[in-house]
Amino acid sequence: MPGRNKAPTLRLRRFAAKLRELREAAGLSPVEVADLTGLDRATLFRIEGAKVRPQARSLRALLDAYRASDQDRNELTALLKAAAEQTWLQPTASLPSQYATYIGFESEAEGVRNYEILAIPGLLQTESYARAMIKGTVPDVSRDEVESRVSARLERQRLLTRPTPLKLWAVIDESALLREVGGRQVMHDQLAKLREAADEPNITIQVIPRSAGAYPGMHGAFVLLEFPGEGHDVVYMEGSSSDLFLEGEQDISHYSMLFEHLRAVAAGPDATRALLATAQENWKEGRHDRS
């Protein structure tokens, strides 16, 4: 099981990156900063690595040493204050740290583009489907940990109904609709949920039919998290032993283009509704295993 701790929020990561940029622009080394401010190098390393939030007086000392402008001071002070805000995730101690990091990012995103091959996206799963998926894919976790992860997954879905709802565009391979997870009734109910979600104005669902054959993207699922402003999007890929976050400009461009290819290959929203309706009926009648 990966280590567990409170994950740095995107705000804290932005704060740390901006503070490091100011130090480098001032031409100061960590040793020089330590001499000027009285902060030891280990503390500065942790601050710039988004491991800890500095106290207000430490931030003032750093900004003075960097000869920061009023605009930079105001921006960093606001970021630090926002980074200190509690989120629903932070009291949850039984989640792997990388998953917790993802949830923290997701809660700050304004849009999510999610491509899945073998499973229904977590933001669209029913409770029964989520529980069956977690039990099946992570068999070594305890019952309490399963329930903790199920609760976290359901809590994430509140993002779709908040006052300014998260915009979700999900592209799902048809194989995910045909894979029996939890039994026929669970799958029937899961398809019903997908059909309901497809009618929401902030949710778009497209299914890639089996008739599409081979297509770009079959090598792995991914999530593209979109944030306000430029240069802050993140690609997330879940692995069996570790997860991967990509933030480079080339990576974001590559996966954005790949998602556009997937959208083009997938059935349109109306044709997808028909596919979902057929899949739900097949699970009801036990015809899901027929070609």
Task: Please give a structural write-up.
- This protein is of the alpha/beta class.
- The chain contains twelve helices and six strands.
- Helix 1 (10-25) runs antiparallel to helix 5.
- The radius of gyration is 22 Å and the shape is elongated.
- The two termini are 39 Å apart.
- The model is unreliable at 1-7 and 89-93 (pLDDT under 50).
How would the blueprint of this fold be written?
Blueprint: H1 10-25, H2 30-37, H3 41-48, H4 56-65, H5 70-83, H6 97-108, E1 111-116, H7 127-137, H8 143-156, E2 167-173, H9 175-178, H10 184-197, E3 203-208, E4 222-226, E5 234-237, E6 244-246, H11 249-265, H12 269-285
Parallel strand pairs: 1-2, 2-3
Antiparallel strand pairs: 1-4, 4-5, 5-6
Helix pairs in contact: 1-5, 7-8, 10-12
SSE string, helix = H, strand = E? HHHHHHEHHEHHEEEEHH
The total count of helices amounts to: 12
Radius of gyration: 22 Å
User: Based on CA inertia axes, which overall geometry fits?
Assistant: elongated
Q: How are the strands of the biggest sheet laid out side by side?
A: 3-2-1-4-5-6
| Count of strand segments | 6
Span from first to last CA? 39 Å
